[in-house]
Design goal:
Blueprint: H1 5-10, E1 16-18, H2 27-35, E2 40-43, H3 49-62, E3 67-72, H4 78-87, E4 92-96, H5 101-109, E5 113-118, H6 121-130, E6 135-138, E7 144-145, H7 151-161, E8 166-169, H8 175-183, E9 188-191, H9 205-213, E10 219-222, E11 230-233, H10 236-245, H11 252-259, H12 262-267, H13 292-308
Parallel strand pairs: 1-9, 2-3, 3-4, 4-5, 5-6, 6-8, 8-9
Antiparallel strand pairs: 7-11, 10-11
Helix pairs in contact: 2-3, 3-4, 8-13
InterPro entries: Aldolase_TIM, Enoyl_ACP_red-II_put, NMO
GO molecular function, one term: nitronate monooxygenase activity
Protein name: Probable nitronate monooxygenase
Length: 315
């Protein structure tokens, strides 16, 4: 059975985190992943404290296993949701889009494992100094907000730079990706795109179908002009956005406005004309809908076979 120090740290059976995907990672999906032995994560996205509290309590009804909350630090409700995770006894918090330093003392005092998502060695070191329990090193192959470095280059450099556990993310959808992450020095993986087609994922069926039909070249990164690039599937919306992004007559404010609500239109409404369907470059490898627990077992069973056989190349 594939296990690592991250399993002991947070009390999970398999070293697999489910990505905290906005409008997608809710209590139902998080509980299914946690019941399957991984770490399910609820996305706090831009929601307020009451919404998040309701999701946490719903997850507690569905699982008695540890689960986490992902807090986007740029959210206008960041301060209040940071208190909710303490009040509700959440075991793990992952963070993105900012520095969680102002919340770290309260979270640590409450016994929360704080695991920031990082896209550079510098940020990983900063999070370690701030008291993070571990970091998620996320490569540019991932869906959603991305950095510049690939998973292959980022993960080993972060592993060499910090002493805390490192979870690899970006471009991982099968056991080969899991095994590769371990060989790079990680002790766990975070998976997003493959969990989009988990049976317990409540995303609109149009979204799932687009992921299942995707090929290797079917994603695009937009938003570089604004300084916060995002990876999504190629759609009518993303092509139109790309066209306007490089049009000097279109202002940054107009681009920002164009993106407002686009993810919700995809995830909730299944709007294929105006929705932004976030997904990673590994989408072409995702072939079928499965229960979350089965996805976790597939990832880990295949990785275990590969890791046990790795010595065959050594003469």
């Amino acid at each position: 059975m594939l296990q690592s120090p991250i399993c002991d740290l947070i009390g999970i059976s398999y070293p697999v985190f489910q990505g905290g995907m906005a409008w997608i990672a809710d209590a139902n999906l998080a509980a299914a992943v946690s019941n399957g032995g991984g770490l399910g994560i609820i996305s706090a996205m831009n929601a307020n404290a009451d919404w998040l509290r309701g999701q946490i309590r719903q997850a507690k009804k569905l699982t008695d296993r540890p689960f986490g909350v992902n807090i986007m630090l740029m959210s206008p409700f960041a301060d209040e949701v940071a208190k909710v995770v303490v009040e509700e006894g959440v075991k793990v918090v992952t963070t993105g889009a900012g520095n969680p330093g102002k919340y770290m003392a309260a979270w640590r005092e409450a016994g929360i494992c704080v695991i920031p998502v990082v896209a550079s060695v510098g940020l990983a070191r900063m999070m370690e100094r701030a008291g993070a329990s571990a970091v998620v090193a996320e490569g540019t192959e991932s869906g959603g907000h991305i950095g510049e470095l690939t998973t292959m280059t980022l993960v080993p450099q972060v592993c060499s730079a910090v002493k805390i556990p490192v979870i690899a993310a970006g471009g991982i959808a099968d056991g080969r990706g899991v095994a590769a992450a371990f060989m790079l020095g990680a002790c766990g993986v975070q998976v997003g795109t493959r969990f989009l087609v988990a049976e317990e994922c409540g995303v609109h069926q149009n979204y799932k179908d687009r992921v299942l039909k995707a090929k290797d070249i079917d994603t695009v990164a937009t938003g570089r002009r604004l300084g916060h690039p995002v990876r999504s599937l190629k759609t009518r919306f993303s092509r139109e956005y790309m066209k306007k992004e490089y049009d000097p007559n279109v202002t940054a404010e107009e681009l920002e406005e164009m993106g407002v609500g686009a993810l919700r239109k995809a995830a909730v409404d299944g709007n294929e004309a105006e929705g932004c369907f976030l997904a990673g470059q590994i989408a072409g490898l995702v072939q079928k809908e499965q229960p979350a627990a089965e996805i976790i077992r597939d990832l880990c069973d295949e990785a275990e076979v590969l890791l046990k056989g790795a010595a065959r190349w050594v003469k």
